[in-house]
From TrEMBL:
The keyword Lyase appears for this protein: yes
InterPro entries named among the record's database cross-references: FabA_FabZ, FabZ, HotDog_dom_sf
Major location (coarse): cytoplasm
EC number in record: 4.2.1.59
Recorded family membership: Belongs to the thioester dehydratase family. FabZ subfamily.
Lineage, uppermost ranks: Bacteria, Bacillati, Bacillota, Clostridia, Neomoorellales
Protein name, per record: 3-hydroxyacyl-[acyl-carrier-protein] dehydratase FabZ
GO MF term list: (3R)-hydroxyacyl-[acyl-carrier-protein] dehydratase activity
Amino acid sequence: MDLVAIQEILPHRYPFLLVDRILEVEAGRRAVGQKNVSGNEWYFSGHFPGRPVMPGVLIIEALAQVGAVALLSVPDFRGRVVLFGGMDGVRFRRQVIPGDVLRLETEIIKLKGRVGKGYGRAWVENELAAEGELLFAVGEKLPD
């Protein structure tokens, strides 16, 4: 999926849409996405001047957005928003800097009704950058 197709599924928009491409999707089960980390990103001007590092919380948000693509690809969930419920066991293994390409892999490991849990891993080349459990709830339909 390209950016236009992603925006048909996710309600996020710039500057908070943190996924550039979806490489794989199994509706309701898993998705793999990509984020091209550019030196022009809005957060680098303050995190940190002279030594830009992508904030870990935004890496986790990018993983959540990829998981949301998997969830919102289910016909019953189309047009809804996916909300964070929490994070467990999140670990940051490597800094993410301008020029890196993040491979974002999120699997839905539990879904009961509209609440569940996913597991996400963010990679730069073959190095694990971040991982952890993502708790979520599928919210109401968004207004048109």
